[in-house]
Amino acid sequence: MKVSTRNTWQGTVIAITHGTIVSEVTLEIAPDVIVTSIVSRKSIDDLKLQIGSPAYALVKSTEVILAVD
Predict the structure, then answer these.
(1) Cβ distance 7 to 27 under 8 Å?
(2) DSSP H helical segments within 6-64, as ranges?
(3) Are 55 and 16 in contact (CB under 8 A)?
(4) Assign residue 41 a region: left if phi > 0, alpha if psi is -120 to 50, beta otherwise?
């Protein structure tokens, strides 16, 4: 797999929360480091994602905003 995205993290699916149209897929990319993505249910089926599946998180963004109270 070749992609132009610089932020690519390999992880393991640890949770899938299905919604009506979209679902949340949570990857653990390191111990106690997780990334959650919103994807379509069709994408979950097409990628054959399930708990324990290996997957990649590809993060492409022009900015990351942080905030505190």
Answers:
(1) no
(2) 41-47
(3) no
(4) alpha
What residues form DSSP beta bridges with 39?
23
Nearest in space to 30 (alpha carbons), one of 54, 49, 50, 10: 10
- 18's enclosing H/E stretch is strand 7-18
Q: CA geometry: angle at 43 spanning 38 and 55, to 5°?
A: 75
What token pair was written down for 60? Answer: 């492409």
Question: For each of the chain's 69 residues, which pLDDT tens digit applies?
Answer: 788 778 889 999 999 999 988 999 999 999 999 999 999 999 999 999 999 999 999 988 777 777 898
Could you give the CA distance from residue 47 to residue 55 in angstroms, rounded to a whole number?
Answer: 9
